[in-house]
Amino acid sequence: MVVHNETSTGVTSRVPAIRAAIDATGHDALLLVDTISSLASIEYRHDAWGVDVTVAGSQKGLMLPPGLSFNALSERALVAARTSTLPRSYWDWAPILAANRKGFWPYTPATNLLYGLDAALDRLESEGLENVWRRHARHAAATRLAVQGWGLEVLAADPREYSASLTAVLVPHGVDADAVRRIILERYDMSLGTGLGKLAGRVFRIGHLGDFNDLMLAGTLAGVQMGLRLAGVDVPATGLAQALARLEWDD
Amino acid sequence: MVVHNETSTGVTSRVPAIRAAIDATGHDALLLVDTISSLASIEYRHDAWGVDVTVAGSQKGLMLPPGLSFNALSERALVAARTSTLPRSYWDWAPILAANRKGFWPYTPATNLLYGLDAALDRLESEGLENVWRRHARHAAATRLAVQGWGLEVLAADPREYSASLTAVLVPHGVDADAVRRIILERYDMSLGTGLGKLAGRVFRIGHLGDFNDLMLAGTLAGVQMGLRLAGVDVPATGLAQALARLEWDD
Amino acid sequence: MVVHNETSTGVTSRVPAIRAAIDATGHDALLLVDTISSLASIEYRHDAWGVDVTVAGSQKGLMLPPGLSFNALSERALVAARTSTLPRSYWDWAPILAANRKGFWPYTPATNLLYGLDAALDRLESEGLENVWRRHARHAAATRLAVQGWGLEVLAADPREYSASLTAVLVPHGVDADAVRRIILERYDMSLGTGLGKLAGRVFRIGHLGDFNDLMLAGTLAGVQMGLRLAGVDVPATGLAQALARLEWDD
Amino acid sequence: MVVHNETSTGVTSRVPAIRAAIDATGHDALLLVDTISSLASIEYRHDAWGVDVTVAGSQKGLMLPPGLSFNALSERALVAARTSTLPRSYWDWAPILAANRKGFWPYTPATNLLYGLDAALDRLESEGLENVWRRHARHAAATRLAVQGWGLEVLAADPREYSASLTAVLVPHGVDADAVRRIILERYDMSLGTGLGKLAGRVFRIGHLGDFNDLMLAGTLAGVQMGLRLAGVDVPATGLAQALARLEWDD
Q: Most buried of B118, B157, C75, D245, CB within 10 angstroms?
């Protein structure tokens, strides 16, 4: 079981490498991937990457309220489900698959969200999924340039695993990341993600996924830059300037 | 008849001075003021300033779709309307005032917009009208600092008449302001106002009225700065930096 | 100037007959028709009937909130407008026609209502305008059968002029129509139209236009029947029964 | 485990009697009640009736889209959950209760539905919960009078268990209930519930729960009456007439 995009740290797993590692061992383990905060924001390929179960949700890259979750299943996952003796009821795929074939759902469906999904998919298809991925990758790159310009560090250590959905930023020692977040919320009405677990107080997280464009990112980074300074972290204006220089060119 | 805030140029009339000038002549002319783009964004006082007729609309500072217009009337305006022999029907105040007294409107009212108005007034009252004015004045000051930082000129010549709702910016000679606007619309999905009449091609206008906060302004100014550079106007990053320095402090 | 559908009485003017009468005199008067409560509910043909100016609104058959008004103009009306010396400004067609040609409007347009109009026209076209007219004619016929079954009278005297948008019903002498309306509003949360001018207290009006179907009409007529009885008008259940008998067959 | 209101049959369980029966045996079994289609439509008292776990949903009496589910828990249920060794994760109350205490939810909450719930509860409280129950009981009584007038039978056998949320109606032998439903859907755009399991083709179900008033019921019953006749079931108009006679008086 792998989280494709780790929301609390801003790290994106290299799923194909994980699949290859499993295959190399000759083990027949199923590969399950959580794409809640990556689907429709970061390149992801259920079939091509040999994933057995993909779990996704409506409330991030699909730009909808929370309330829908999705599973994509490989043939092997279906076989495993059919032959498994684990007790199950609500989470059982069999009645769902049977109903889906006729365009239905075995329980009361969230019809209003399905209408929203229809509109969201229209938007994604009209932009083109590869363009959507490229847009988020570009925003993530510009965000990292801002962080670098501020003299701060991105939490993710391996550039191959930088997240295109969000960036977790380490604050200097002696600074409380939650105090920075509070100032930015109060002064600029912008809510940044908090550090979780052992990262509490050490990082704040900038989201740049879903329905997001260049000027939203510019406003977001301006808010972070001003908030850091108000919190006593004397970051230079170079941060935002470097990000904007990146946003001036398209690809 | 005076326009309080001239939307095409970003100039705000000094209404009390105009009233005083009329009074100084001893003439009994009525003073009519159009506040379409100033009401609930720029300080305005119908009674204290001795205005006879104020005309306002729903679609700017009141943060609603277009569709409602408002008149505030002085006692003298009412007397003039009663004694005037000018023919009138739809624009006649008498049936409206009579119906209003009972909470009604003589014709089919736009009830959905009235519900919206109720919500908009709640928001304005909860922020406090003086705070709303201050917010827009601060955004306008930050915008002018950006313009100055870019080495460009604000169209309004007299600092007492700078508009807090919008800022018209002169582009350097040889640059087509509409080309700048087009680039910004295409690249950053932001629509700036065009120059009208003899200002066509010479100015673009940045709106900062209504439901607007610091980070929206930061995103807006970032878009203008990037767009100018993409259009070949080599403005320095100082523009946005000066605006943000202003937005770091509150008053 | 003719009102196509007289909302206060439930009478529909025979516009072609009026046109023919004008033509018969050889007079070159323009024919102006108000279709506020008939457009997209009752058959109407601007060109075929030789109308010069048609006035319509968004808030009835077009199923939108109030806020848009429409004019259809004949060639003769355009010539008259061009050659007339009557002073005009806001109501002047010339700048509107010039802007319309390029898909614009000379003043701030109510864009949100235009999106609504787009959806409303899709619905009307998908049902088919002739079917829409037929639907309302059928509902009006069923309503009159109910009125007859109750032993009451429809206000409109000439069957050729029965309105398909609404039906005005005369209450028996000694009964206050507004008391009936009040009871129905309080008990059944349904608001009927009041009698206007000399019809005050003598009639109530049942609307059956716009987005309306058989069961809404059934509920409406049930509410009127119960309300009349509660108001002391001992109408028989035959009224609703006759209306339903009509709604059982389609055409 | 008891379903308070059985949606497929229109039968309401007498929960206090079930509680008494359990208590009479001296058994310490927990009592779990599903109130999906009864909450806020039919009298229900979690504490007074000694229920241990109540399960409810947003999409019926609470008048919201599907997407929220609620549990009310007795002290004994909490103890059982704490001491039980059954494996659980998503359905575990402990983290939810801990987060709820601070006004939060351990996972991504459906915030938009929570705003809707706030509005729905305002409406229910403004009508008064006992009045809401009385309204639905009255509509159910009127519906049964219609069924009786048509010469048909209500599926529920015991009058103490008639549902106030919905009424399942048996069609005469030789009639296909689904054919009746199809005609009503096609002709009158009204969707009735189908018979499930061994009731397939034998019953249709009339819902009268949630945001529902007298004239909606009148329209509904008119549609059923007309649809039955169109389907060849020659029911008399007495059905609707008897229902309306009931709706004429308030209590």
A: D245
Q: Do residues A133 and A4 make contact, with C-beta atoms less than 8 angstroms apart?
A: no
Q: With contacts defined as CB-CB under 8 Å, which chain C residues touch B108?
A: 57, 59, 66
Tokens read off for C248: 């059982």
Where b means 16+ CB within 10 Å and e means fewer, C24-56 reads: eeeeeebbebbbbbbbbbbbbebeebbbbbbbb
C220–D222 C-beta distance less than 8 A: no
Q: What is the DSSP secondary structure assignment for residue A12, as one 8-state letter?
A: E
DSSP-assigned letter for residue C152: -
Closest CA to C165 of C15, C44, C248, C80: C44
What are the tens digits of pLDDT across the range D85-114? 988 888 899 999 999 999 999 999 999 999
**Integer CA distances (angstroms), B225 to A146, A247, C43, C125, in order:** 17, 11, 56, 47
Cα–Cα distance, B209 to B216 (Å, whole number)? 11
Distance CA(C125)–CA(A124), nearest Å, equals 29
Provide, as residue numbers in chain C, all residues whose Cβ is less than 8 Å from the Cβ of B61. Answer: none
Strands C2-3, D32-34: pairing is: unpaired
User: Which residues have CB under 8 Å from D249's CB, separation 6+?
Assistant: none
The Cα A59–Cα A70 span in angstroms is: 11
> Touch between chain C and chain D (3+ CB pairs, < 8 Å)?
yes
CA–CA separation, A184 and C75 (whole Å)? 62
pLDDT tens digits, C23-56: 999 999 999 999 999 999 999 999 999 999 999 9
Q: Where are the alpha helices (DSSP H) in A109-213?
A: 111-127, 129-149, 177-188
Residue C191: exposed, middle, or buried by beta-carbon count in 10 A (0-12, 13-18, 19+)?
Answer: exposed
Taking the C-alpha atoms of residue D87 and residue A216, their distance in angstroms, rounded to an integer, is: 44
For B20-25, the CB contacts below 8 A with 24+ separation are B23/B50
**Is the CB of residue B74 less than 8 Å from the CB of residue B51?**
yes
Q: Could C111 and B65 be called an inter-chain contact, meaning their C-beta atoms sit closer than 8 Å?
A: yes
Contacts of D66 in chain A (CB under 8 A): 108-111
Query: With an 8 Å Cβ cutoff, are A215 and B188 in contact?
Result: yes
pLDDT at A47: 98
Tokens matching residue A221: 């980074």
The rounded percent of chain C whose pLDDT value lies above 70 is 100
Backbone φ and ψ for D233, nearest 5 degrees, come out as -95, 105
SS3 D11: strand
Q: What is the pLDDT of residues D20-73, one digit of tens each?
A: 999 999 999 999 999 999 999 999 999 999 999 999 999 999 999 999 999 999
For residue A169, give the nearest of A232, A216, A215, A224 by alpha carbon.
A224
C-alpha closest to that of A100 among A123, A72, A81, A60: A72
